[in-house]
Amino acid sequence: MEVPAVSLPVALLAAGASPSPSPSGSGPAVPSLQDAQQSATNAASWVEQNWSTWLAMGLQIVLIIVIAVALRAVVRRAITKLIERMNRTVQAVDHTALGGLLVNNERRRQRSAAIGSVLRSVASFVILGTAALMVLSTFKINLAPLLASAGVAGVAIGFGARNLVTDFLSGVFMILEDQYGVGDTIDAGVATGEVVEVGLRVTKLRGANGEIWYVRNGEVKRIGNLSQGWATANVDVTVRSDEDLDKVKSVLDEVAEKMAKEEPWNELLWSPIEVLGLDSVLIDSMVIRVSAKTMPGKSVNVERELRWRIKRAFDRASIPIVGGATALEDAAEAAPAPDPSATMAAPSAYASPTSPQSLATTPIVTQKPSTSK
Question: What SS3 class is residue 349?
Answer without folding.
Answer: helix
